[in-house]
Design a protein that fits this description.
It is a single chain. The protein is of the alpha/beta class. The protein has one domain (4-208): Rossmann fold. The protein is 33% helix and 20% strand. The protein is built from six helices and eight strands, in the order H-H-E-H-E-H-E-E-H-E-E-H-E-E. The protein has helices at residues 4-22, 34-44, 66-73, 87-96, 133-145, 172-182, and strands at residues 56-60, 79-84, 102-104, 116-121, 147-157, 169-170, 187-190, 197-203. Strands 1, 2, 3, 4, 5, 6, 7 and 8 form an eight-stranded mixed β-sheet that branches. The radius of gyration is 17 Å and the shape is globular. Bound molecules: S-adenosylmethionine. S-adenosylmethionine (SAM) is lined by residues 11, 15, 29-30, 37, 60-63, 66-67, 83-86, 89, 106-108, 122-124, 126.
Length: 215
């Protein structure tokens, strides 16, 4: 299986190249345009209460901080924290939003980071670096461990009519099965709102745990 360090080297090369080519914009994080990026954000935040200022958000793979701006423009006044492995993109985020709470952290290589009410992640699985499904499963489990309420992330679907070379297509039913069998029974898969993409929300289970009555 690909080691997290190997993934990170390949990922940093790809995003460094994009940032040097496009400068500070959605192209630096390899979105075709801001609309595609924003459609994905809109899907992620459906599972959040944006009006609750006591909630905290962790943005895994925050890139140059666009989700911070999106959340702010949509009324979120809680705590925002972003983690990313790419230093150049984090510098862009700090330049754009002085004081933004972002850190150079890899969710797959740290155990003791704090918990957040909402963990969000957009686009971290987009590029094909030869990573295995097991690597993706571990990545999802690592993010979920630190969500107090819900983890929401997206991926590119295998149910498409053409494929772009270099993009990483993941069968949604395999991810769904992994989540249901290993993480929580409260999982929502949304495969209808975005072309080529799907969004998965995994809730911590507490509210719907079954009540078992013994006689
Ligand atoms: C497609 S970009 C999306 C950036 C941002 N979420 C957005 O939509 O604007 C994917 C980001 O994930 C970051 N990334 C990849 N693996 C990561 C990891 N293990 N931990 C944190 N960030 C990671 C990359 O450096 C890159 O900035």
């Amino acid at each position: 299986m690909m080691k997290p360090q190997e993934f990170n080297i390949a990922s940093n090369q790809a995003y460094d190249l994009a940032a040097s080519k496009h400068g500070i914009c959605s192209g630096a994080v390899r979105w075709d345009n801001p609309q595609t990026q924003y459609f994905r954000f809109a899907e992620l935040v459906k599972y959040l209460d944006l009006s609750d200022q006591n909630k905290s958000v962790l943005d895994v793979g925050c890139g140059n901080g666009e989700l911070f701006k999106y959340l702010n423009h949509h009324g979120f006044r809680g705590d925002y924290t972003g983690y990313d492995i790419n230093l150049g993109l984090l510098e862009q985020a700090l330049y754009r939003f002085p004081g933004i709470n972002v850190f150079n952290r890899d969710v797959n290589q740290i155990e003791d980071y704090e918990d957040f009410d909402y963990v969000l992640s957009s686009g971290v699985f987009n590029i094909d670096f030869g990573q295995s499904l097991e690597f993706i499963h571990n990545f999802i489990a690592n993010m979920f461990r630190h969500a107090r309420h819900v983890l929401v992330f997206n991926a590119i679907s295998t149910h498409v009519n053409y494929r772009d070379q270099g993009m990483y297509y993941i069968d949604p039913s395999q991810i769904l099965r992994f989540c249901l069998e290993n993480l929580s029974k409260r999982v929502v898969l949304s495969h209808g709102s975005l072309p080529f993409n799907y969004t998965i929300a995994i809730y911590k289970q507490t509210r719907y745990d079954p009540i078992i009555e013994r006689s």
